Each structure stands twice: as structure tokens, then as C-alpha cells.
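User: Here's a chain of 931 residues. Predict its fold as C-alpha cells.
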Amino acid sequence: MTTRSSKSSAGDGTTPLLRQYAQIKAQHPDHVIFFRCGDFYEMFHDDAKLGAAVLGITLTARGRNSQGESIPLAGIPYHALEPYLARMIRAGHRVAICEQMENPKQAKGVVRREVVRVVTPGTLLEENLLDGKANNYLAAVVREKDALGLASLDFSTGHFSITEFIGARAEERCGHELTRLSPSEVVTARDQHDALLPLVENALGAASGAGAGGGRMAVVEASAVTSHAARTALLRQFGVRDLHGFGAEESPTAVRAAGAILEYLRETQRTAMLHVNELRVTHPGEFMMLDAVTQRSLELVSNLSDATRRHTLLEVLDHTGTAMGGRALRSWILQPLRTRAEINARLDAVQAFVDDHERRRRGVECLRGVNDLERIVSRAACKTANARDLVALRASLRQVPRLRALTEPGAKKPDDGLFPNLTDDPATVADPATCSETPGAEPKISKPAPRPLLDRLRDEMDPLEELTTRLELSLIDTPPLTVREGGMIREGCNARLDELRAISTDSKSWIAQMRADEIAATGISNLKIGYNRVFGYYIEVTKAQVDRVPPHYIRKQTLANGERYVTPELKEKEEIILHAEERIQELEFEMFEALRDEVCARTREIQRTARAVAALDVIVSLAQAAVAGRYARPVVGEGVAFNVTDGRHPVLEALNFDQPFVPNDTLLDPEDHQILLITGPNMAGKSTYIRQVALITLMAHMGGFVPASSAVVPLVDRIFTRVGAMDQLAKGQSTFLVEMSETANILNNATDESLVILDEIGRGTSTYDGLSIAWSVIEYLHNTPGRRPLTLFATHYHELVELEGPLARLKNYNVAVLEEAERVAFLYKIVRGSTDHSYGIYAAQVAGLPKAVVSRAKEILGSLEMGNAVEVVHPGDGGDSGAGSGGGMVQLTLFDVMGHPVVERLREVNVEKLTPLEALNLLAQLRRLVQ
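Assistant: Prediction complete.
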């Protein structure tokens, strides 16, 4: 809304400018107003106090209000807006940018001002305010009966998508997707805010590993989120008659969520948003589901120690040369595919660059010359792009022909066996729906293979030669940041501009000549000719030389050390010079706006090109990772078994410890090896092994090569994890309760097509309770129809190894250990069979426990294993107070085996005839006897 001054005394302002500010503040009471006054953005009243505190700037005052109190004032230079804006947004505040909408010299009264943009965490466009390799999502959630609609928009790139969740698991699935998106803001209808707050808080808290996310929420009026209002807003935004072309007509609740986003943008933005021109509809089963626990426990994009990307899968795979490629790689990791044909299309593309070193090298070189096309064109569409943005666009478009050439057929085939192509290249592929719904069934041949991905990317890339040429001819190579002070346009681009520049240049030479002439005429050797915005051009003479000033000099200003004068001739030339320079700035800005409009007119083509370049960047990055890590191409979705030879953990291997990573084979098969029960010492690598199986599965589904000599991976609908490393995140909750909650999630939601990773289930409670729970969980995963996922179960309960045999699809594995005298060597090799040794005392010794403690622990262990009494040692009067002291010893029987009812009951049991259920019941009886 445009605002001039008012007769109202709104606020405490006693001047027209402060009354104008008060009116604008009343329209945006929840925002900090950056109020443009000349070369500064100023803040008044409470905004000034907040700005001074957050931005570290001086708090001063301007005038007094009607009560005689000084009015707080703080300001920042207009050319330094971005860093201050970034600090304000990161502090959690929304900012309204209020600009001068007319030339102050031409204004009648107070300069007309209006809010041109409201900057919020979810609507950022500025490069310095954004993480180049992460999307910045604005999300919206709407509930309607048993359905939840979710919309997400990265305003900085134009990526706009919707998903609808229906049924009993709608809230859970919506929460998982919110966690994946990790939006900066979530919009809801005002009347649904309180009901949806727990869902948003839980999802965003899980995404950050921190507390609630309610502070990220914003609301719009419910009237804007009705089905009719939302649909109308979408039709208007996209300029279409219906939503069938987007496939959105069947997702009414998600359409309402998209409408909430458009309403929020209407309230906060003052532009046409031409870059928001497409809507993608995604479906819950389209990608492998990765819930918050799985994302964090596998450390996919952030680690568990400091939540950065250090030591994550993303860090290992990220060799991207562009910011948009980095964002696309992150998306590929968090949204693995479930369609075999598309997975193989990606693998084919990666293979082309793995096999051809020169192609890969040229790809890396070209991509380094590409800037963030997506965000540049978004800024252009929102009229915030500057000349440097258009120069960056020009440089990027120059690389497009070379990038298109890299997608041409002709990759060499491998001949050294290092990167085996394990996949046949069938003319037809299995129907994805058939593959996903019928595990183990023969694929139904029904669909032709899609066009090669590289061919599709080549078709999407448009070099836009005409636009590139226009930018080449128009803009200099290093233009200034500001677009209103000239210095952007090349010479020879516009005849009138060249003429005005000549006038300006000649006039400056004339000023220099006039100074020389005046010195010669007056004899005043230190005479100067200067300029300021108040008086314009002037002649300055020191006090000592004033008596030499000729009569035609007109005095304008007296200084402490001299006088300033003007002459009719100087004023005449000043008018010519200033008019020329003002017209130069106006004309350059007009020409720049015309160029920016030309870019806007090609928004769709640039966006398509940008997304194709980003995908190509990911492909090259995955190829580089494959070559560097000696990865193999997996076979994906050709059966239901998981069979990996020499698998490795990609992140730990990349850390390059002193000794090479020990590879391991893995066989999982729903018919015979459905559950692998893995026992062995805690330090021997069980957790690393089960995590690497999950990571290999994920990497294969994202279309990348995997750290193995060979790999056959079935299509998986979801990876579940319950691993010990998450315990550190259970702030304020019982570790055992968190473990049980995560285990319950797995048991309630796993399917025959899932992969489950369980590490040390049953800790945090009594031994028998823990053992019983672990035993029961295994039986449930083995015996429940529709809930029989491929499972890796690492445990310290060695009693569970007896389940092999009674449970036909469970197989025992353990971590190999080499014992030599007093030393134990962990071989980090997973081998068939079980073990009953945990080597806990050895681990304690390696960890640095005092020798006396370790020695005493060995004594106690020996007694317990023999069923003998254990002596409890107390310090003597003058003896050593450490462990093992012999003074004042008291004999205590920890296990009085003779005549104990538990022993008598065990003597009666025929172990060979016990069923698993009878064994559990017996354990419960024995526990009651002990108590």
C-alpha cells in the first residue's frame, strides 16, 4: 500500500515523516520496518530499540513526541542492507522493506513511500541470506476430515509441490515429509493453527534435533484456504483453466495447502512471482520413505555430534560444482527412487561418466563455470536481481552448449573390470507397480524403457543464444552492486548514453581547465573547485587569499578556514553536468530493467535448463565419488534378495583411518536369510556393519554406485533403524522409552518390502526384560504375515542364538575375533555362526580402566562363570583402598546355587522339548522365584 503523509497524529510523531511511518507501521504491526530515508534505512520507536540490540548499531533519537519524550532512532546504510537483513532474519524477525517511490527532488511534500516486500525466513531471495546447497522451503499444512494436505515452495528457486495424505497414518506420513523438508516457515489457516501446532512442532523438532518449531509458524485467514479460494488462486497464478494438467484435481486438501502458500506470498510480496509457474504433485509411495530417526541415525545429511554435514553421506558424495547441483544431490539422498526403470536410467547416466575419464574431467570443468541459475532467475522475476546477477547468468549460459555436448552418446565401455556393469540393458522393464506390490513375483513386462536420462537432460538445456548475446553486448564484465547509479552498460550499446557520457566526461575536463584558468587570473594558487549535494559546484578560497577574490565571485558559504563562492559560468556548467549524470543514471536503469524483463520473459526456459544442469551435476558428482571410492554399479529391483560382496561403509572408509576398511559380504533373502542375528563384542564393528547395509541400499535406490565389489539390491519401500547412537538425542526422555517407541514404530509399519536395522534392542532395563523383548521382537518380525522385512539384528543377548533352527529364516552371524595369549584382535569380519563372548573386560582395558579394576573384574567373571561364590572386598584399616585390597573381606554369596528353587526347577526342565513361547514363560517363572 502506498502511503503519503496524513493529518492524523498516528503514533507519537510530530512531523509528517513520522506520521507517515506510523501509518505504515500500523499496517505491519508484527514486522520490523526498514524505512528508507535518503541513503539510510531507518527504524523508529520499539523497532529502533530492537534493531540496535540485534544489529549492534547505535541507538539515537530524532525529535520529541507530544509528551516531550525523545523518539528512538537507529539506521543502517541502504547499500549495506543484506548483511543487516540477514542478522535480523536469523534472529527470528520478519522485516518490511519500505522504499521511496519517487525522486525526492520532484516530491511535493513528504516523499511517497510504500512497503515493496516483506522478508520472512521462508521467502528469502538474497544470495547472502541463503545456504547455496540447501533448499529454503516455505510449507503449508491443511487438515480436512481424515486427510492432510502438504504444500512446499522454495521461493528462491520456484520449486512448488503438493502431497496429500489420507487415512490412519496420514499424520505420521505428513510429519515425516515435513521433517525431510525442514521448512523455514509453516503456514496454516488461522482456525487450524492450534490443532496443527503439535504436528509441526514434532516434525520440525525432529528435523533439527532441538525443541519445538512453533516459532516458525505463520497464519493466513481461513477464508483464503477454502477449496474455492485456493483453486482460484492457483488458476490465476498459473494462468490455466483447470488443474488437470498438473494432476492436482484429485488432491483437494493439498490444493488448499498450496492456496495457503499463495495467500501468504500475496500478503508478503509485491511482485508477480513469475518464477512460481509449475506445480508438482507427488504421492506418498513414489519414493522410499525415510523417517526422521532413519535420516539422523544414518547421518545422511547432518551428523549426530554437531548437526553439520561433516562426516555424512552427503559430504562423501558431494563433488558438485554448482549450488543447484548440491541442492539436487541432497534431494536425491533424502528421496530415493522406487521405480526400477528410473533408477537404472540414473545408473546408466552415472556409468557414462565413470567409464569416460575425459568426459568426466570436462564435466567438472564446465560445471565450475555455472552460477546458481535457479536463484538468479527467481530474483529477476521478483525484480531484485542486479547487474551482477545478469552477468552471472550470462557466464552460465555460455557453458550450456559445452554441457549439452557432454550428454551426447559415445561413452567408452570399461575394460579393466574395476567398475563392473552388472545390469543387463533390457528393452523393456518391469511395471513399477507390479514390482512394488508383489515381492518375489516374476516382473510383468509392460512398459518400454524410458529415454536415456542424458538424452532427456540434453533436450531440457536451452543455451538461449539470443539472450546471451544481448547480455554480452549490453553489460560490462564487473558492474557495481547498485543498479541506480549507472556504470553498468557497455559503451557503444546506446548512442544517447554515449552522448551523455561524453558531455559528462568533457564537462569534468572543463572544470579542471576552469580551475587552472581561475588560478592564473586571480593568482590564488590554492584555489579549489569542489562539489557537494547541498551547494553543487563551488570555488573554495582560504581566508588568507580572500582579498584576491574578484568582484564577480558570489559568496555562498563561510567556513572556519575559508570561503566558498560560485560564478554564473560555473552554475551554468553545473546544470549541464548534473543533468547529464542524472540522465545517464536514469537511462542506464531503464536499459537494465529492459534486460531484466527479457530475462523474466525466458524464466521457464532458464528454469528447465537450471534443473537439467543440476541433475547433470549430481550425475558427474556420483561418478566422481564412484571412481574415488572404487564403487560398483548395483543391480536394483531384479529380485527380492540382497546380495553384496565386499561391502564397505562409505563414510568411515572415506575418513581414511590408518588401516584400510575391512569389507564384508551380506546375504539377505526373504526365503532363507530374512533375519541376520549378529553377535560379538561392542568394539568389533557390528553397528558399522548393519549401517553400511542400510547405506548401500539407499545409495542404490538414489541411482548411485555403491561401496562394494558387487551388489544386488531389491526394491525397498522403507528403511527403518533403531540404533544406539540415537540415545544421546533423547533429552528429557527415558532412553529405554525412546528405544521402545522407535521399536514400536518399526513393528507397526514395516512391510515385507522394508529393510530393518536393529542395534541392541532391550538395553536400559533388566536383563530378563530386555532379553524377553528382544526375543519377542524377533519372533514377530519372523512370523507375522505382511510384517516380514529383511532384518539385521545386532545384539549382546547371546541366548538369542538358540533361535536359529526354530525360526527357519533366521541365521546367526558374529564378528570374528583373534585371541592370542592376553591379547584380543578384532578382525571386523562378519562370519557365519554365533559367539558367546563379548570381550567386555578387554574393551574396558583398552578404554583405560585402572589395572586393578580390570584384574578384579577378571576374578569376578571367573567366579561367576564357574558358579562359585564371589567375595565382596572392603578396604582394611591400613590397607590399600583400591580394588582388590585384602583388608576386612566379607564372604557374600551372589549366586547360592545349592538348594535354590531356581536350580531345582531347572533340573526338571527338558530343554530340547521347549518351544520359544514355553521358554519365555519359564524365564518369567524363574524371575519371580529369584525376586
